[in-house]
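Hi,

I'm pasting everything inline rather than attaching a file, because the server keeps stripping attachments. The sequence lines come first, and each chain or strand is labelled.
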Amino acid sequence: MNPTLLSARALHHSYGHTPALRGVDLDIAQGEIVAVTGPSGCGKSTLLHCLAGLIRPDSGQVRYRDTRLDDRSEAARSRLRRTEFGVLFQFGQLVAELPGAENVALPLLLAGASRRSAAAAARSWLERLGVAAAADRLPGEMSGGEQQRCALARALVTDPAVVFADEPTGALDSLAGEKVLTELVRIARERGTAVVLVTHDSQVAAYAGREIALRDGAADPLTLPVGGAA
Amino acid sequence: MSTPHVLLGLLSAGPLHGYDLKRAHDQRLPRARPLAYGQVYATLARLARDGLVTATGTDRAAGPDRTAYAVSDAGRAALDAWLGEIEPPAPHVASAMLAKVVIALLAADTARARDYLARQRAAHAARLRDLTAVKTAPDATLGDLVAADHAILHLDADLRWMQNTAGRVADLHTEVHR
Ligand SMILES: Nc1ncnc2c1ncn2[C@@H]1O[C@H](COP(=O)(O)OP(=O)(O)OP(=O)(O)O)[C@@H](O)[C@H]1O
Ligand SMILES: [Mg+2]
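And the predicted assembly:
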C-alpha cells in the first residue's frame, strides 16, 4: 500500500441548519482511485469540496501530505489547488469565451508557465484525449463529451497528485462517459495520480479500486466496503 | 441460450480445437456459465453427427482433443436461422434474489433482508469492478468492451433493483406479514 496522501478526520459541515457531513473519516493513498457514493443529498459533493480545499469544514481535519488544509487561508489553499489538485465537475465549467486549448492552458499560466510551453502542453493533452479538434473551438462549439474531455485535459495539465471529479459523466451518454472515465483511469494509473470520484452511479463507481459509501453525511453502515484490500 | 448454436457461431470465424473453442466461449461470453470441456466435446460430436460441422486438420488420428472442427454449409444455414429468431424477453432478474428477500422477511425480519441485500450488493459491485477493469486495461480491444458491457449493464440493473428493494424493505415487510 502506498503512503497516505489525503486524509480526513471527524469532518463536520452544515449549511445553516442543514447538516451535510456528520463525522467523516477517510484515508486516500497515493495513486489510489476511490469512489464516493451514496444517494442524492448524502454529502458527497460537500465532502469533495472539503477534501479539495474549496470549502473549510466547520470542524474536523483535512490533511494533504504534511499540510493541514482545514486551517489554511483561502489564498494558501488556492495555491495548493493550483499545482497539486485537478478538478472536474459535471458540466465541464470551461470558460465560454476561450477556445479549448486556452482553457486547458489556463492552470499552467496561473502557475507561472510561459505562454508557449503552456500552449504546447495543452495541445498535447487534447490530442492524448482524442479531442485535438477542440483546441481552436469555443466550448459552445463542442459536444458535451468533447467539452468534458477538454475539462479533463485541464484537470490533468499540471500533472496533479489528486484529481477530484464530481459526477464527471453525469451529463453524458454512456459511451461518451466511458471515454472520459477510461482515459481518466488509464492516465491516473500511468502517472500514479490519486482520484476521488463522486458518483451515485454503480457503473461509474466500478471504475474505482475502492468505494466509500455515504448516507446522511456519514459512512453508510449498511453498505459493505467494495475493494481496497487488493 | 443454445450452446450448439453458440459453438457454431464461434467456429464460423475459423476451425478450432475443442480446447480453444471452450476458451473462446468463456472469453466471449463472460456472463454465461463457463462450459465444461466434456460438454464442448459432446456438443461437437452431435454437431458432427448432424452434419453441421466437419472434422478438419492434419492430426485427426490423435483423438478428439486434437481434432479441429469447421462449420459446414448446413451449419451456416442453421446458424443463420437461429440468428433470425428473437429470444423470449423473459426477465431473468434473479428470481432467486427476490425469493431470498421475501423469505428473509417471512422467516426473519427486515434486518435480515437488508443484510442479505448488502452482501449481495457487495458481491455484485465487486464483479462490476472486475468487468470494468477489463475495459480500462491498456490492451483492451473493442471486442473486450462489447463483451464486458453486456454483463456490466445487467449487473447494474440488478444493483438498481437491490437499491430500490432495500428502500422498500420496511413496507414490503408489512405487506408480507399482512
Ligand atoms: N450551498 C448550499 N446551501 C445550503 N444547503 C446545501 C448547499 N449545498 C448542499 N446543501 C445541502 O447539504 C446536503 C448535502 O449536499 P451535497 O451537495 O453534499 O450532497 P450530494 O451527495 O452531493 O448530492 P447530489 O448527489 O444530489 O449531488 C443536502 O441536504 C443539501 O441540500
Ligand atoms: Mg453532488
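Helices of chain B lie at 3-11, 18-28, 37-49, 73-84, 95-107, 110-136, 142-176.

If the labels don't parse on your end, tell me and I'll reformat.
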